């Protein structure tokens, strides 16, 4: 069953501006905990990347003052927050936070986001497809898992991330076992 068209929410510019001076170091332990738990709960996800498991992926929420680098090595996957993506990445995925969250939560059709130009992908397209297929094939809602780890704060963050899309609930869908779009 195809997903209904969803409006991609963006972070209000005033909120993004307010986040600009905040340090990134508090995100690092949260990212490490999250990636470690995903690896423990879904060990096959990183192995499914095959030859692309050694690649470096940049995730750039265009409406936030920071970005993330994902290194999905099966033995030790890692994610790091940084102000700007480095040049030496294998692939970059850029777009509004709502589009990136919809993609990793399985709420949005990645192809539709790409063809509607909500998402911009540069670099190794085969690696990006392998990453998307690895996430989809495990049936994991990465964002939902992240948010449920931090309950009851997760529910508040979920509400904030949904923005103007009350029908979308990333954490709630993870708890209900929502299936990916494909």
Summarize the structure.
This protein has helices at 13-19, 27-41, 43-47, 97-105, 110-115, 125-138, 142-149, 153-162, 170-176, and strands spanning 57-61, 67-71, 78-82, 91-95, 120-123.
Describe the structure in your own words.
This protein has 182 residues and is α+β, with helices and mostly antiparallel strands. It has one domain (13-140): Nonspecific Lipid-transfer Protein, Chain A. The protein is 45% helix and 13% strand. The protein contains nine helices and five strands; from the N terminus they run H-H-H-E-E-E-E-H-H-E-H-H-H-H. Strands 3-2-1-4-5 form a five-stranded mixed beta sheet. Helix 7 (142-149) packs across helix 8 (153-162) and helix 7 packs across helix 9 (170-176). The relative contact order is 0.17. The model is unreliable at 1-6 and 164-182 (pLDDT under 50).
Helix content: 40-55%
Major sheet description: 5 strands, mixed
> What's the CATH class label?
Alpha Beta
CATH architecture: 2-Layer Sandwich
The fold-level CATH name is: Nonspecific Lipid-transfer Protein, Chain A
SS summary, helix count: 9
Strand order of the largest sheet: 3-2-1-4-5
Strand content: 5-15%
Radius of gyration: 15 Å
Number of domains: 1
Report the order of strands and helices.
Answer: HHHEEEEHHEHHHH
The CATH homologous superfamily name equals: SCP2 sterol-binding domain
Low-confidence stretches: 1-6, 164-182
Look at the structure and give the mean pLDDT. Answer: 77
Which structural class best describes the helix and strand composition? alpha+beta
């Amino acid at each position: 069953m195809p997903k209904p068209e969803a409006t991609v929410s963006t972070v209000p510019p005033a909120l993004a501006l307010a986040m600009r001076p905040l340090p990134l170091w508090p995100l690092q332990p949260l990212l490490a905990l999250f990636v470690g738990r995903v690896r423990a709960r879904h060990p096959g996800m990183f192995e499914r990347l095959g030859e692309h498991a050694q690649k470096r992926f940049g995730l750039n929420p265009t409406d936030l003052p920071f970005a993330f680098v994902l290194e999905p090595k099966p033995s030790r996957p890692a994610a790091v927050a940084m102000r700007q993506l480095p040049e030496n990445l294998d692939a970059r995925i850029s777009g509004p936070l709502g589009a990136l969250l919809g993609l990793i939560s399985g709420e949005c059709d990645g192809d539709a986001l790409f063809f509607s130009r909500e998402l911009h992908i540069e670099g190794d397209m085969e690696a990006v497809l392998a990453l998307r297929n690895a996430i989809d094939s495990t049936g994991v809602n990465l964002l939902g898992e992240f948010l449920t780890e931090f309950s009851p704060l997760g529910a508040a963050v979920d509400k904030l991330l949904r923005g103007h899309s009350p029908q979308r609930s990333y954490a709630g869908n993870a708890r209900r076992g929502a299936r990916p779009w494909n």
